[in-house]
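wait is this the right file?? whatever heres the structure
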C-alpha cells in the first residue's frame, strides 16, 4: 500500500481512477488544482465551471471516504504554460500546451507538492502505463490498452524521477469500461463529455486570447505564394496553422493550404497540398526515455500529431540535445512548436519539439 495524491478534475477518468486505487489498497487523497482565473480569461466574472468541478470531485471523494483538497498553482501555470503558449504563437510556431502542463505542472509542481508532504506517488486519469525495464532498471512509458484514448504522446517529456513517482490506474482500461464503471457507481459525471479544447482558451479563439494576455495587437499581413506574389490579406499569424485550408478566404480556383508562417515580415505562404509533404524534420529539447541518451541512429514509429498513427522513421542524434528524423515515406504538414514522439512497439522511446522542416 502506498500513499497517493490523486489529481481530480471532476471528470469520470479521475473518479474511476480513485475507485481503482482504493481497490488496490492505497491510501489516497484527492486534489483539484486551481490553475487560472476563469472569470478573467473567459470574461464571465466568476469561476462557476471550476466551482462545479470542485463540487463534483469532492462528492466522489466523500463517497469513498477520502480527503479532498484544492491547491492553487496559478502563478506556476501562468509562467510554465500560458506564457510559453503565447510566446510560441507570437514567434510563428504552434505550441502544445498539454505537453508543457504535464511536464511542469501535473508531474512538476504537483509532484513536488506531493513528495514534500510525504506522498509516494501522484496519480492521474491519463490513459498510459509505466513498466520497469528489468535489464536497465529504467521506468518506461507504455501505450494505453485503449489505442484511441492513449495519451502517451502528451507525456513523452517526463523524466525518470517523474515516471518513477507516477501512477496511471486507467492504463489497462478502455473508455467504454470507464464510462460503464462510472454509471454503475452512480457518478453524476458518468455521461460528461471529454473536453477537446485547450482548458484556458475559450472556443478556440487563440488570437483573442493572445491579444488580451500579451497586451499586443496581432497585425494583419499578406498571404503570399511560394514565389512571393501577394494573394490577399490574413488576419494575424496566430490564427493559422501549418496545413490549414479552411478559413483562408481566397478563391484561386483550387484549394490553398498554409505552408509557412514568416514572423519577420508577417507573411503566410500558401500553396498546394503536395507542398506540405516532407520526409525530414529536426527536433530540439530531446527527452530520451528508454536509455540515458540517444547515442546512435535508431528505427522508430513516429507521431507528429497525437491522433496520427505511427509512421516508420529513423532518429539520429545531433548536437545540443537535438535530433534529425527521416521518414520512410513523405508525411504531411510538420508544424514547428509541435512534438514528434518516437515509439518502439508500445514503448515511448522519447520525443522532442519540431523546429525545422525541409521541402
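ok assuming it is, sequence goes like this
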Amino acid at each position: 500500500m502506498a500513499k497517493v495524491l490523486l489529481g481530480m478534475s471532476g471528470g469520470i477518468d479521475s473518479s474511476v481512477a480513485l475507485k481503482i486505487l482504493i481497490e488496490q489498497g492505497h491510501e489516497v487523497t484527492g486534489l483539484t488544482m486551481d490553475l487560472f482565473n476563469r472569470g478573467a480569461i473567459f470574461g464571465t466574472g466568476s469561476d462557476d465551471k471550476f466551482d462545479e468541478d470542485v463540487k463534483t470531485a469532492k462528492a466522489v471523494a466523500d463517497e469513498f471516504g477520502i480527503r479532498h483538497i484544492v491547491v492553487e498553482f496559478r502563478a506556476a501555470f501562468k509562467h510554465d504554460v500560458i506564457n510559453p503558449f503565447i510566446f510560441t504563437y507570437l514567434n510563428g510556431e504552434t505550441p502544445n500546451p498539454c505537453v508543457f502542463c504535464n511536464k511542469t505542472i501535473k508531474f512538476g509542481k504537483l509532484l513536488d507538492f506531493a513528495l514534500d508532504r510525504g506522498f509516494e506517488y501522484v496519480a492521474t486519469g491519463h490513459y498510459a502505463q509505466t513498466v520497469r525495464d528489468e535489464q536497465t532498471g529504467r521506468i518506461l512509458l507504455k501505450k494505453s490498452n485503449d489505442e484511441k484514448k492513449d495519451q502517451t504522446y502528451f507525456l513523452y517529456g517526463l523524466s525518470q524521477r517523474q515516471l518513477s513517482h507516477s501512477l496511471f490506474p486507467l492504463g489497462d482500461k478502455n473508455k467504454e469500461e470507464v464510462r460503464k464503471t462510472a454509471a454503475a457507481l452512480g457518478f453524476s459525471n458518468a455521461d460528461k463529455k471529454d473536453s477537446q479544447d485547450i482548458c484556458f482558451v475559450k472556443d478556440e479563439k487563440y488570437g483573442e486570447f493572445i491579444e488580451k494576455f500579451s497586451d499586443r495587437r496581432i497585425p494583419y499581413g499578406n498571404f503570399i505564394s511560394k514565389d512571393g506574389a501577394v494573394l490577399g490579406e490574413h488576419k494575424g499569424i496566430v490564427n493559422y496553422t501549418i496545413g490549414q485550408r479552411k478559413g483562408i478566404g481566397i478563391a484561386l480556383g483550387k484549394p490553398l493550404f498554409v505552408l509557412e508562417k514568416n514572423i519577420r515580415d508577417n507573411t503566410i505562404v500558401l500553396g498546394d497540398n503536395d507542398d506540405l509533404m516532407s520526409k525530414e524534420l529536426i527536433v530540439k529539447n530531446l527527452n530520451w526515455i528508454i536509455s540515458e541518451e540517444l547515442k546512435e541512429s535508431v528505427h522508430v514509429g513516429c507521431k507528429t500529431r497525437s491522433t496520427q498513427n505511427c509512421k516508420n522513421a529513423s532518429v539520429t542524434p545531433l548536437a545540443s540535445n537535438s535530433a534529425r528524423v527521416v521518414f520512410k515515406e513523405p508525411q504531411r504538414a510538420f508544424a514547428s512548436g509541435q512534438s514528434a514522439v518516437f515509439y518502439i512497439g508500445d514503448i515511448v522511446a522519447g520525443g522532442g519539439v519540431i523546429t525545422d522542416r525541409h521541402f
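Residues 97-116 form the longest helix (20 residues). so i think its the right one actually
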